[in-house]
Amino acid sequence: QLQVVESGGGLVQPGGSLRLSCAASGFTWNFYAITWFRQAPGKEREGVSCVSSYGNRTNYSDSVKGRFTISRDNAKNTVSLQMNSLRPEDTGVYSCGILWVGLSTTCRLGTPDGMDFWGNGTLVTVSS
């Protein structure tokens, strides 16, 4: 049974850290690139970071570059997003979008359109 589950969200003070996890099952994980998206209240979903199918290529939005780190463990079918120096504007629901790329070494940071699978998301709130 196909399943994608995000975890690790919560309430954190500005300057704090959180580590999000995206775990999947029910499909051949190694042929998919993963993108972390977030959606703040009243705003469109935006891509913040992505990782290629074998983890050798990553990309970050300008708003999180230098603060967030994405990584994947294909043996465990998981992708993590380490978020440091969090700001109130990082608040939102974080979801992992999963896109079939075959043997391609790319990942896609832009539009959420066309993703093959989604999880339900995990809420991150950065507030004092």
Q: Based on DSSP secondary structure assignment, what is the total number of beta strands?
A: 11
Overall pLDDT level: 94
Helix/strand-derived category reads mainly beta
Order of helices and strands: EEEEEEEEEEE
Residues in helix, %: under 10%
Number of helices: 0
Question: Which runs of at least 5 residues are low in confidence (pLDDT < 50)?
Answer: none
How is this fold's topology laid out?
Elements: E1 3-7, E2 10-12, E3 18-25, E4 32-39, E5 46-51, E6 58-60, E7 68-73, E8 78-83, E9 92-100, E10 117-118, E11 122-126
Parallel strand pairs: 2-11
Antiparallel strand pairs: 1-3, 3-8, 4-5, 4-9, 5-6, 7-8, 9-10, 9-11
Q: What keyword list fits this structure?
A:
single chain; 128 residues; mainly beta; 7-stranded mixed β-sheet; 4-stranded antiparallel β-sheet; 48% strand; globular
Protein architecture, described:
The chain has 128 residues and is mainly β. It is built from no helices and 11 strands. The chain has strands at residues 3-7, 10-12, 18-25, 32-39, 46-51, 58-60, 68-73, 78-83, 92-100, 117-118, 122-126. Strands 2, 4, 5, 6, 9, 10 and 11 form a 7-stranded mixed sheet that branches. The chain is globular. The mean pLDDT is 94.
